[in-house]
## 1
Amino acid sequence: MILNILVGGPKEQWPDELVAGNIQGPWIGVDRGALRLVQLGITPELSIGDFDSMTESEFKLVTQHSRHTKTANPEKDDTDTELALREAIANFKFDTVMIYGATGGRIDHLLANLFFIFREPFNTMFEKICLVDKQNSIRFFKPGSYHLVKEDGKKYLAFIPLTQVTHLSLMDEKYTLNKIDFVYPVSLASNEFVGDTGEFSFKSGVVAVIQSRDDEK
């Protein structure tokens, strides 16, 4: 089962299927992401956030068209994305959670959303999380061997260590990596798919893998 979360972010960075309202639920709306779901005609199972950037009429619209609404204190340590994920873990069943809008606009939000996986309870289930926008998808991996499938024309690959990573190998792609060690936090590797799939492995650490495509001209 796939659970969808819309954090917000610039609409220009949403995947085309989200702009068209064609992604099937269930949905959690986060702050202004909840408003945007309602405007798309989608009923969030849960709307959550501090809602401090909404007008009174916008907030009323969200509460009227959401199955449940939960308001957070603006003075908090967790991001709204983390709050939504905590609710998801506690109250929803899912195999994958797709988070839309968490990579857009605000670089501080992006960095926070890359590193929240080390907090409880995400550090036990981060492999189920994917951050998605029009140009990129970001997934998190623990040590092992993996089979990648190129997503929606996103031919570029980046490996970003979130801890020290050892023996990362990527064979049969444009640039071969063979048991490379990454010294956190200054290393990264950019690459490209040759075909539509790829294999990679590593021995220790946590790595974020980004699939990207070029800006549309």
## 2
Amino acid sequence: MPGNRAQRSRTRAKDTTPPRTGADEKATLRGFLDYLRNAVADKVAGVPEPEVRTGGVPSGTNLLGLLKHLVFVEQFYFLGEDVGDWRATMRPSAEDTIDGVLADYRKTVERANQVIDACPDLALPAPRPPRPGPAPSMRWVLVHMIEETGRHAGHADILREQIDGSTGR
């Protein structure tokens, strides 16, 4: 862990409140998912090299790896793109940059939101790569992505606090 608590500056961002969403189910689910997506992206933005890719826990989990993983998760669940090696999605390459992975994430989220917005009924199957059995519903995918992104937002909160002491969203 870079520095110690006494040496690091403590930055406390004002926590944002949960989103005020539209009246329907899709708007509510997407509103909470976007809220979490923004929280993760904000935790990665502004972190210098090499701290952004330095593991903060024994597993090696790092901020850039979390964001890169979420790019692949969004592509899989909303865009129907296959992922060959899920473990590799957590490991940023030497060529991956903060700006590049953030841009990929934002572009993927924009494309995913277009798919969500175009879905007329959340009971319909979400896009997915060929797999045996029925595809999950868009409702299931939205709830799962809230869970997945929320879990990783919590990881990002802890990793960011370890790096520079900043807390909040």
## 3
Amino acid sequence: MANKVKSLLGGPGFYAVLALCVLAVGVGGYFLLFGEPAQTEAPTGPDTAASAPVEDLPEHEPVVETVPPEEPEEETEPVVMPEVTIPVDDTPVVAEEPHVVVLPIQGEVLTAFSVDQLLYNETLDDWRTHDGVDIAAAEGDAVLAACAGTVSSITDDPLMGTTVVIQHSGGYETTYANLQAEPAVETGDTVSAGQTIGTVGTTAAAEAAQGAHLHFSVAKDGEAVDPDAFLNS
């Protein structure tokens, strides 16, 4: 093999190889010199520059800020109101009796009511006013409460004798004098209209000349009023 290579390079073959190399170099130079000219880049400027395609901008989704829920405030203990105890009056309500007025006793009027003029008193032998009416009756006749009320006092008056006073609604007060010594009621008793409170006597020294009778008088808020107006109200 080595002998063949030496004979090729040493003889005419050497010149043949050299000619091929020269031919190859020449062909290559030709194409380099006379081939297609290399494309040169076109100058770019404001008028010739090609506008680059606008890339689609990505759609931006609205940013929603998530606010975390507020933590509930620390629970406070409810305010407990103190219990208020309203006192209840368990006292039974007593129905008031209708306003009924009755004549305390039947009889002739011996002395009329008079606070504006003087009347002569035979027993005392003088002139004085008369704050009630004197009604003739037999000793021992029943004397009735003229209206419902409460017995406020029982006294032994030096001039008017045994006297019972009854308080009524509306500021009224009735007085029954010249009764027998032992009335049928006591102080503080509640009486109804027409209830017996005592009997006719002769204990009134100031009216002894008139014999047995009932001295009956009425006052309104402390002022004497005509008994007839009260009895007919």
